[in-house]
Amino acid sequence: MVRLCGASLGLFAFAIAIFQGLLAGNPALVVLSRALWALVLFCMIGLIAGWVSYRVLDEHALQRSREMFSEIQEEEDAETSAGSRLVDAGRPASGGSETSVPSQAAAGN
Question: N or C: which end of the chain has fewer CB within 10 A?
Answer without folding.
Answer: C
